[in-house]
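Suppose a colleague, Dr. K., hands you the sequence of a protein chain of 173 amino acids and asks what its three-dimensional shape might be. Before reaching for any lab equipment, you can write down a predicted structure in token form. Begin with the sequence itself:
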Amino acid sequence: MSDALNNPPANGANTFDRALERGLANRLTLIVGPDAHARNQELNDWLASLGHESLRIHCSPEDDPRACPERIVEAFASAGIIEPVTEAIESADDCLEHLVQLMNCLAAFPGELVVVLLDYRPCEQVDQVLSFILEHLPQQVHLYLLSEDVPGLSCIPRLRVRRQLQMIETSAD
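The predicted structure, expressed as tokens, is then:
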């Protein structure tokens, strides 16, 4: 699969775009590999051509990974999907309260929404937030996660069995 993504067929068809398009039938599309982040511009171009609402969340590897759950919630608030968070998310209960509110708002969201999480790095707090989101994600919302490695999210085996997971592997060629 990696070779096909890095060397498009001679007929001009863009295999990576087709793989991204297939991800709209899933809760989670993982774009993994050493050059997953290099696919960012192609992902931007594809998102622009879609016509769906999209939200990009950047969790920089230089940042404290414990701040990423708050950044995820704040990104949805900045996009107007949920009410702005006025207090710091200091505990798991605070985070859960905001996540429940987020899931309720997403369930009422009119139309398709593509959420892209860039620069994913494994971290217990982020993994818990993402697992909760993926377990409760409404059908019209699709999460695309770019990472160098396959994440160890607890929900991945369930998503795989339910055929709600697509993995796009990239290589550094």
